[in-house]
Amino acid sequence: MRTRRAARAGQYAALLGYLLFLAFPLLWLLSTALKSPRELGSLHPTWIPRHPTLANVRQAFAEQPLAHAALNSLVVALCTAVVAVLIATPMAYVMARHRSRLTRAATAWVVVGQAFPFVLVIIPLFLVLKNLRLIDSLTGLVLVYVVWALPFALWMLTGHVRAVPAELEEAAAVDGAGRLRTLVSVTAPLLAPGIAATALFAFVTAWNEFFFALVLLKSPQRQTLPVILTHFIGAEGVADLGPLAAAAFLATLPSVAVFALVQRRITGGLLAGAVKS
């Protein structure tokens, strides 16, 4: 009994240490955001602010249009997640259920496509969007993010589709359901954890992406939050640390909130209740 208690206490201690390790950047951002300029410049920094203040938060909102940039990022991220899932779900179904040389080649291309760096595609991508008159447009940015997130979304959903028993679809076909009806009414509900994870991946990727947004968006009123955060760094590379930490901390909250909303879908059983004995 003592050995079990000691082992369990060790497991909890290890888990707590791991959680603190993961939460350290966020806690350090919060601590920095609540410190006064005098504390930030101190030669003996402290973990906990001695005199917490919200001056950095007020200064951050006063200096930069954080609320408008956050709205732009939210619109882009939500549109990216929805469009990527709507496109990837039927494509993943075809790739998982109809195995051939073409689908194997497509799967290989999906994996290889993730190896291309951003810099390699930015010039041709810029020229294509320029011809489509989508430079400095949130619509153009959404298209770029969807294309960039689609390969990994396909790879994720294909594995989830293959985990769904084909017998369920065969039973639906016997009852007279077509391919589309089977996908919508039978397969898609069972893919809820995979769809939630894919949507979360697409949302977080679009929310945090910086390089494409920096190159494709020129107008300040269309810039996303990661681009606006760079405005807290001066021309000589000196960062306004307090407001930057406050803005960066606030920028992480939507991703955490979205993950908290969908984490039950992600951790839930894929086929819970699908087959009854």
Write a concise keyword list for the protein shown above.
single chain, 277 residues, mainly alpha, 74% helix, globular, transmembrane, membrane
Structural features, described:
- The chain has 277 residues and is mostly helical.
- The chain has helices spanning 2-33, 37-40, 55-63, 66-97, 101-113, 118-131, 138-163, 166-174, 179-190, 192-208, 211-216, 225-229, 241-267.
- It has 13 helices and no strands.
- Helix 1 (2-33) crosses helix 13 (241-267) and helix 7 (138-163) packs antiparallel against helix 10 (192-208).
- It is globular.
- The two termini are 38 Å apart.
- Belongs to the binding-protein-dependent transport system permease family.
- The chain crosses the membrane at residues 12-30, 74-96, 108-129, 141-161, 182-207, 244-262.
- This is Sugar ABC transporter permease.
- It is a multi-pass membrane protein.
Shape label? globular
Unreliably modeled segments: 269-277
Distance between the termini: 38 Å
- Count the E strands: 0
- In this structure, how is the largest beta sheet organized? none
State the helix count: 13
Assign a percent range to the helix content: over 70%
Strand composition percent: under 5%
Q: Structural class, from secondary structure content? A: mainly alpha
* Radius of gyration (Å): 23 Å
Give the H and E element order.
Answer: HHHHHHHHHHHHH
What is the mean pLDDT? 83
